[in-house]
Amino acid sequence: MNAVTTRMGMFPSRAEAWKQARAFIDDFCRGAAVPREACLRASLVIEELFLNTVKHGQGGGSDAPVWITLAARGGRVDLTYEDHAPPFNPFAAGTREKALLHAREFAGQTRRIQREHKSSSTCPS
């Protein structure tokens, strides 16, 4: 059993801090001998949470802290994620409209990327 089984990190709620948070996760996984697949899953979940905090919770970023606690247990990663962003109420007025707007933006970005890939000679068909 490895001695590095639990670790906590604190990062500012800024997009550029994701790089540090990612290194924290990778270092933890290496030190705790977490299987690669479990580490990748944890990293993906934390990335989504972190970037949502920055974009939606902190309106583009702030120095408000984000705490990430990781624990290795039986080949998996247990995580706790905490931030100081305002609470999100999915039933609040205007929330549905904002979600639809984000979905439309995402769909537009996806179509643009697909067009770029189709016109690129380096991408496989």
Describe the structure in your own words.
This protein is an alpha+beta fold and 125 residues long. It has 2 domains: 1-87, Heat Shock Protein 90 (2-Layer Sandwich), CATH 3.30.565; 89-125. The chain has 3 helices and 3 strands; from the N terminus they run βααββα. The chain has helices at residues 18-31, 36-57, 95-119; strands at residues 6-12, 65-73, 76-83. It has a 3-stranded antiparallel beta sheet, with helices on one face. A hairpin with a 2-residue loop joins β2 and β3. α1 (18-31) runs antiparallel to α2. The longest helix has 25 residues, at 95-119. The N and C termini lie far apart (46 Å). Mean pLDDT is 83; it is low at 120-125.
Look at the helices and sheets and give the structural class: alpha+beta
State the total count of DSSP E strands.
3
Tally of separate domains: 2
CATH class group of the largest domain = Alpha Beta
Strand portion, in percent? 15-25%
- Sketch the major β-sheet: 3 strands, antiparallel
CATH superfamily of the largest domain: Histidine kinase-like ATPase, C-terminal domain
List its salient traits:
single chain; Heat Shock Protein 90; 2 domains; disordered C terminus
What is the gist of this entry?
The chain has two domains: 1-87, Histidine kinase-like ATPase, C-terminal domain (Heat Shock Protein 90), CATH 3.30.565.10; 89-125. Helices cover 49% and strands 19% of the residues.
Please render the helix and strand layout as text:
Blueprint lengths: L5 E7 L5 H14 L4 H22 L7 E9 L2 E8 L11 H25 L6
Antiparallel strand pairs: 1-2, 2-3
Helix pairs in contact: 1-2
